[in-house]
Structure formats: C-alpha cells, structure tokens
C-alpha cells in the first residue's frame, strides 16, 4: 500500500481511485474517493496560500502550503466503499497467495 512506502505523498489524509472488477461477470467499476474541497470560496484564497521551495541538495522542489491548500480526505471512506457497495472480494480469498 502506498501509505507505507510514501506516507507523506500518499496517506489516509488524501484521496484516491479504485478499479474494481467483478470476477463472476467481468464488469468493472471505478470508485472515485478523491479529496473534497469547499463548494464556495471563503475570503481571499491568496491569504492562505504560499509557495515554498524545498532544497534537497542537488534537487529543489516547489510546494504549496497554507490553509487554502487542504481538502477533506476521502481515502478511508474509499477503502470502505467496496464493502458497502458489496463489490469487495471475499476476504478469505483476497489475502491467499496465488489468488
């Protein structure tokens, strides 16, 4: 899971997508559990938005920080969605080697 390998870039505080395939019918479905942002702008977004440059020695990277750069996470709800929609594989088969 990306949360273990890249916890800063991919975490339960983010969002994602899942492609689910029904093994019986072959039908696929895309679940979108990306982050949610406010429906309307509140105040001047520029006030809560800053650009910084992180210096990693030979490499530099631009990051955007501040209150205007955040959203409500959808990751955990997304992990739960296949179960709620009854599209999750049976647990005993999902974690067997060779499945």
Tell me what you see in this structure:
The chain is of the alpha+beta class and 99 residues long. It is built from three helices and four strands. The chain has helices spanning 2-5, 75-84, 91-94; strands at residues 16-21, 28-33, 50-55, 60-65. The longest helix has 10 residues, at 75-84. The chain is flat and about 50 Å long. Residues 91-99 have low confidence and may be disordered.
Descriptive key words:
4 strands; disordered C terminus; 3 helices; two-stranded antiparallel sheet; two-stranded antiparallel ribbon; 99 residues; alpha+beta
How widely separated are the two ends?
A: 18 Å
Tally of separate helices? 3
Largest sheet: 2 strands, antiparallel
Helix content range of the residues, please? Answer: 10-25%
Beta percentage is 15-25%
Q: Could you provide a short overview of the structure?
A:
This protein is an alpha+beta fold. The chain has helices spanning 2-5, 75-84, 91-94; strands spanning 16-21, 28-33, 50-55, 60-65.
Topology:
Elements: H1 2-5, E1 16-21, E2 28-33, E3 50-55, E4 60-65, H2 75-84, H3 91-94
Antiparallel strand pairs: 1-2, 3-4
């Amino acid at each position: 899971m990306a949360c273990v390998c890249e916890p800063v870039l991919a975490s339960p505080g983010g969002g994602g997508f899942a492609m689910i395939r029904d093994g019986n019918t072959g039908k696929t479905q895309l679940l979108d559990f990306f982050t949610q942002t406010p429906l309307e702008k509140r105040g001047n977004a520029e006030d809560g938005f800053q650009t910084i440059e992180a210096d990693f020695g030979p490499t530099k990277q631009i990051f955007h920080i501040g209150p205007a750069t955040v959203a409500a996470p959808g990751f955990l709800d997304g992990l739960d969605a296949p179960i709620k929609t009854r599209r999750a594989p049976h647990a005993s088969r999902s974690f067997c080697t060779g499945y």
